[in-house]
Structure formats: structure tokens, C-alpha cells
Amino acid sequence: MEPSVLLLLALLVGFVLLLVRGYPKAHGRLPPGPRPLPLLGNLLQMDRGGLLKSFIRIREKYGDVFTVYLGPRPVVMLYGTEAIREALVDQAEAFSGRAPVAVVKPVFRDYGVIFSNGERWKALRRFSLATMRDFGMGKRSVEERIQEEAQCLVEEFRKSQGAPLDPTFLFQSITANIICSIVFGERFDYKDRQFLRLLNLIYQTFSLSSSFSSQVFEFFASFLKYLPGAHRQIFRNMQEVLNYIGQSVKKHQATLDPSHPRDFIDTYLLRMEKEKSNQHTEFHHENLLISVLSLFFAGTETSSTTLRYGFLLMLKYPHVAEKVQKEIDQVIGSHRLPSLDDRTKMPYTDAVIHEIQRFSDLIPVGVPHKVIKDTLFRGYLLPKNTEVYPILSSALHDPQYFEQPDTFNPDHFLDAKGALKKSEAFMPFSLGKRMCLGEGIARNELFLFFTTILQNFSVSSPVAPKDIDLSPKESGFGTVPPKYQICFLAR
């Protein structure tokens, strides 16, 4: 259904409901914001460009902390580096709740490590961090896994013999294989039909959840869920992935060796067995399925999307790619694999990767939080369970920290001596107790994949650099880079 039709239906329903009930009054003392209409909230203040553009415009009038009504519910927006840090770091516990994302709520249903709360979230996060660390630093470290996967990718690119190709699914494949090796205990061939099907479902879901119609859905999910739309396709996609995960869990159960757990699923099954007599345990089948889905989805799409944007930027700014290759030649050379130890000796390359993450702005409005108790913040009283959006884009584009926030410039992360410069505004993985638990793996992936590719290949585009459009294909919950063709030319 067209977004304009959805919008019209929502308006009509809103006015009908307005006749039968009033607007709910929030207790507490929320930050200022545009006056909402009953049930419609601030829909009429929304920009066709999406939620982020709307929030930027509203912030100009109301300041860095303001309230927007997404339909009938108030959401507090945190804009800029200082506001986000004050909430997620200085008052980390109070802001540690997770609010739902409407289009995926029917899939995750408050289970798993990303969208759960309270003791469930704490138990699953502790377990997930410990288990991923164990399988990342065991017999085969994450570094070794990434190095091996990078070499598989190099061989795949060599087969192309410099012909233009769409890198989407290859970049997805390499990042998915790293998380698959930890979660499922195996990697997949790049031509495996089941693997490619799963990757396509994840790519589709990320794109659909970032669409304009999904942003409208966030306002009126209680009504729009009954109508056709992207939310139904997202549900079908994720159910298919969950079915695959369920089959994998059954295979693990049939071949489980308690003395030699192979991966995340085995370790979780052993924990389930250990706690089977505990009626209140969080280690049950539903949390296993949704936790694996969460890790698989996040571990695949975030790093692969960043790589996709990264190489599009290398095509747009070839002088940057050349400078990275010069540093690779000086520090690593051409006869050994890049390693994580090289990162500290390669400040320019590290700065380029930081700038790619900043510029690509992967999760612009952040994954929603909520306060877990009545919370005093900047003179306002946020009632328990108030939803909070930390607008990460506003920090990544903060002019107080980045001289040219809308321009791709690696110098944003270099000091006067050419050393890597850290920035408090750099928060692509968010901050605080809810920050991405895969940050360490993602940072290692980006460095090793990026340097290995540019060690072995120069890149070029069928399109002249000046004509390359960096505008995202979608920008909502996530930022989806445009499709493009790239040539990998052996050096």
C-alpha cells in the first residue's frame, strides 16, 4: 500500500477515534515539544523525508531535549553529543530499558538479547558476552576467523577479473560467516542457496524496516497492523529465518556433546539443561531462538552495510583509497596477512574507517530506549517507561566535534601530528549499558576486511567519481546505501 494511502487512512481513523475518546494525559513533567493532536500526535509535523529530518527541524525550535508524540505516545528525543552522553552514560541505569520498534515487535516479542528488559535482558546479555568472548578467543580466535574469511573473499574477487559487480551479498556473506562460525559453528559457501536466501531475507528486512511506510507504522501500529504493508513482509521474512534457526537447534540437540560445546547454541543448550528445574529461568527455547536471530541479524547487516558504504566512498574519493593503500604497503606490504596489531601503526587507515562509520550513520535515530524508573533529567521528570530516542546521527554530525559534519573527511579523526584522534561524539555502536555487544567483533571485521581488500585490489567504478551519488536508498530505522557496481582490479 502506498505511504500516502496509509497516511490518509491513519488520519481518518484518528479523527473518528477523536470523537469517542480524549487524549491521554502523561504524568510527570516532559520536555517541551510541538503540541500534539489527539491520537494523531505530531503526525502533521512530520517531514516526507522521514523521522530524522522531522526531528532535526523540531529541535531547532525546542532545543536538544524535546518531546514528540508518535501517535498517542510521547517519546523524548535526545539530540547532540552532550544530551546523549548525559543520559546513556551519566544516568546509564535509569536509561537502560529497551523500547520496541513497532515493525519488528511481533517477531521479537520482548524475547532475546536485544529487545528484552529487566532480569531477562541482564541474564541474556551476560551469557551472550561471555559465550561470544569464549568462542572468539578459543582455539580459533576471531582474528583468525576474519583473516581466513578475508582470503576467501579475495579469491572470489579474483574470479571476477575486474568486471563490475554488485558487492552487496559478498559483503553480507563475509560478515555473516563470522557470526555464523560463533553461533552455528560453521561457515557457508558463498554460493550456498540456503545461505543466500537467509542473507536476502535479512537485507530485505533491514531495507523495509527503514522505509517511509515503516516510519508511519511507528505512529499507528495498533491500527495499521491489521492492514497490508511492509510489516507483514518483515514478519514473514523473519519467521523464515526463525524456522531455519529452529532446525539448526534441533540438529545441535541431536549431536550435542556436553564435554565439547561447539558454539553459542551448544553452550545455551547446556545452560538450559542445567536450569531445567528452575521455573523462573530465562534460558528456555524462545529466548534461544530470538537471541540467535538477534545476533545473526545484527552481526550480518551492520558490518556489511558499513563496508558497502565504505567502498562506495572509496569510489567517490579515490585519493583516500590510494592513501590507505600507501599506508598498507608501508606497514604490511604484500606478502603477509593484515593483523589487528597493525591497526596502531596505521592511523590514517583507522581514521578512514572511523569516518566511514561516522558518515554512513547506520542507525540514525538509535535503537529506542526507555527509562526504567521515574527519572529526573535536565530539570524534567520522565515517568517510568517513557520512551527515549538517542538520535545518534546528531552526535555523528555534531559541528562542535566535526568541522565539516556533512562532508566525508578522514581528518576528522586525525590530530595535527597525523595520529588517530578520539572523539566523544563518535558513537556508531551507541553508548552505555545497551551499547552493541558485538562492537569488538565489528571493529575487528572492518579493519581486517577493509585492509585485506585494498592490499590486494584497487577499486574503480563504471561511473565517474563526480557522478557517484552517496544518498541512501532508505533512511529510517537504518541507513541503506544505494546499489552500485564496483570493479576489483588486482594490484
TrEMBL record:
Keywords: Endoplasmic reticulum, Heme, Iron, Membrane, Metal-binding, Microsome, Monooxygenase, Oxidoreductase, Signal
Molecular function (Gene Ontology), one example: heme binding
Sites where the protein binds heme: C436
Pfam families xrefs: p450 (PF00067)
Cross-referenced InterPro entries: Cyt_P450, Cyt_P450_CS, Cyt_P450_E_grp-I, Cyt_P450_E_grp-I_CYP2B-like, Cyt_P450_sf, Cytochrome_P450_fam2
Enzymatic class: oxidoreductase
Record-listed E.C. numbers: 1.14.14.1
Amino-acid biosynthesis recorded as keyword: no
Localization annotation: Endoplasmic reticulum membrane; Microsome membrane
GO cellular component, one term: endoplasmic reticulum membrane
Major location (coarse): endoplasmic reticulum
Catalytic activity: an organic molecule + reduced [NADPH--hemoprotein reductase] + O2 = an alcohol + oxidized [NADPH--hemoprotein reductase] + H2O + H(+)
Cofactor(s) this protein cannot do without: heme
Biological process according to GO: epoxygenase P450 pathway; xenobiotic metabolic process
PANTHER family for this protein: CYTOCHROME P450 2B6 (PTHR24300:SF406), CYTOCHROME P450 508A4-RELATED (PTHR24300)
Entry function: Cytochromes P450 are a group of heme-thiolate monooxygenases. In liver microsomes, this enzyme is involved in an NADPH-dependent electron transport pathway. It oxidizes a variety of structurally unrelated compounds, including steroids, fatty acids, and xenobiotics.
Family affiliation: Belongs to the cytochrome P450 family.
Protein name, per record: Cytochrome P450
Species this chain originates from: Neotoma stephensi
